[in-house]
Specification:
Blueprint: E1 9-11, H1 14-21, E2 30-37, H2 43-52, E3 62-67, E4 70-75, H3 81-84, E5 85-88, H4 96-107, E6 118-126, E7 129-137, H5 143-152, H6 166-183, H7 190-209, H8 211-220, H9 223-233, E8 250-254, E9 258-259, H10 260-269, H11 274-292, E10 302-309, E11 323-330, H12 337-352, H13 356-369, H14 372-383, E12 388-394, E13 400-402, E14 405-413, E15 422-429, E16 432-440, H15 448-467, H16 480-488
Helix pairs in contact: 1-13, 7-8, 7-9, 7-13, 8-9, 9-13, 10-11, 11-12, 11-15
């Protein structure tokens, strides 16, 4: 779809349309990123950088326009970079709690749909340096594509003229393995899922209206429809303090970073992946929070929807959404940290052999094709089956610079959808692992009470490895009493 003037308007992909239409007052469809810097940023230099590199992606000059018959991109004739780049200062001491509150306020504030759906906020006074907070609507791109966009804004040396082109070097050295791990085994039948279109939507509508149809399809249907039926037949996640009615206020927090090499070593010692270790630690942190809040955790298992990249490696720098979702079980009710890790690892292995991600990507495309009135009940049906969204993005293991200033910490959150009120985010950068939580204020009153447990859960796993006399090389201390209390009582 193009205007007669030759290109100011173009049709939005069906999957991107689905993400645009998922917006709710209780769950805004923004990806929120936080970049902390060792020294002050100069706002005018940031604006110049964004004008040269961010706006090199034509899409970011375009508005997302939704209509009953479909959605499209339209060039903003009144585009104003000053509106999209704001300068802010933190109140009071200007420390971590003030920054978390500021980011929470931004995450609770909708973007202006009469303009391109993104903003950057330069926070000038944070621990002797600055912070850049980015908000970009999910309809523009998925998390991995936006990682590439953000990398394009950075350099690998303070002097931009001497830096190697980061996105190319990172993809060559680290990214190939990253994408291969996330693609396998789904890529083989991606085309099939994308072609099902309205047939998937029609079949899903039929199964929603008559659950017996889903049961029949689960036994006798083809591979794609069988996976869809199995997803529909999953029981709803249990109602807990983390799952229930949502409000419009979001709160965020992040933990002190962990050394990535220690996490890798622990994974090798316990014969599991880095991702398994980190998600097991997140499960333990949620368990501890629920116990402190007086919640019942015995036998409790909740699900996280985990994005799985389905973007071909050669398309890594393209925008748009090219990912599916899988349902990962988080064994909150398991008191033993090692058993908890084993269950997470076993579930991840099972998911790697499934086609869940393929099905959900095809379903998102079908939702974008179908009538908007039918999207809300379909979205709600799937969101009832999970309590949180969990993402883990491996970033460059080298220092990055923006306008000559070194980035010390990175964090981001993808939006939650439907009735899901908690988002977990794990990102590795320059030898460290960063863990953060975004939660609906009605579901998580104190997100710091969750994130500060993340490191403690990692310490427990380390102590187990040491107590079991594995031949590990980790050196750590400090959580033995807590560990003995949980394991022995």
């Amino acid at each position: 779809m193009f205007d007669s003037d030759g290109g100011k308007r173009e049709a939005m992909s069906k999957v991107d349309t689905a993400w645009l239409r998922m917006e709710r007052p209780t769950n805004l469809m923004m990806i929120t990123g936080v970049l902390m810097f060792a020294a002050p940023l100069v706002p005018s230099a940031i604006k110049q950088l964004l004008g040269e590199r961010f706006l090199a992606y034509r899409r970011f000059r375009q508005k997302a326009v939704n209509t009953p018959s479909g959605a499209y991109w339209e060039t903003d004739e009144d585009f104003d970079l000053d509106w999209h780049v704001r300068v802010a200062a933190l109140p009071g001491a200007g420390d971590k709690i003030e920054l978390e509150n500021f980011v929470g306020e931004l995450a609770s504030s909708p973007l202006d749909h009469s303009k391109p759906l993104w903003q950057f906020h330069v926070v000038e006074n944070y621990r002797g340096g600055s912070v850049l907070v980015a908000r970009i609507h999910h309809c523009y791109a998925d998390g991995l594509a936006l990682v590439q966009v953000m990398l394009s804004l950075t350099d690998t040396a303070p002097d931009p003229e001497k830096h190697a082109e980061l996105t190319r070097t990172w993809l060559k050295r680290d990214g190939q393995n990253v994408w291969q791990r996330m693609l396998e085994p789904a890529q083989a039948k991606l085309g099939k899922a994308l072609k099902v279109g309205n047939k998937v939507f029609d079949k899903m509508t039929e199964m929603i209206n008559d659950p017996s149809v889903a049961a029949d399809v689960a036994r006798e249907g083809g591979e794609i429809t069988r996976e869809l039926a199995n997803a529909l037949l999953l029981p709803d996640d249990p109602l807990t303090l983390l799952k229930g009615p949502l409000g419009v206020v979001k709160r965020v927090a992040w933990a002190e970073p962990l050394p990535l090499e220690e996490v890798k070593t622990l994974g090798r010692v316990l014969d599991c992946t880095v991702n398994d270790v980190l998600l097991a630690c997140a499960s333990g942190a949620l368990r501890g929070y629920l116990l402190d809040q007086g919640g019942e955790v015995d036998g409790l298992t909740i699900r996280a929807t985990v994005p799985v990249n389905l973007r071909p490696l050669e398309h890594a720098k393209k925008l748009g959404n090219h990912f599916g979702l899988v349902f990962l079980e988080l064994p909150i009710g398991e008191a033993n940290p090692l058993r908890r890790l084993e269950r997470v690892a076993a579930c991840m292995r099972e998911l790697k052999g499934s086609r869940q991600a393929i099905v959900t990507l095809g379903l998102l495309g079908a939702l974008g094709m179908g009538p908007q009135a039918l999207q809300a009940p379909a979205l709600e049906l799937f969101s009832r089956k999970a309590t949180t969204v969990a993402t883990n993005v491996p970033g460059p293991q080298q220092p990055l610079y923006m306008t000559g200033v070194e980035a010390t910490e990175l964090m981001f959150w993808v939006p939650q959808s439907g009735s899901i009120g908690v988002g977990l985010s794990i990102l590795s950068y320059n030898g460290t692992v960063h863990f953060g939580l975004m939660g609906d204020a009605k579901r998580v009153r104190d997100p710091d009470a969750v994130t500060r447990r993340f490191g403690e859960e990692f310490e427990k796993l380390i102590l187990i490895a040491l107590m079991e006399d594995w031949d590990g090389t980790i050196a750590s201390a400090g959580a033995e009493a807590t560990l003995r209390h949980e394991l022995i009582g």
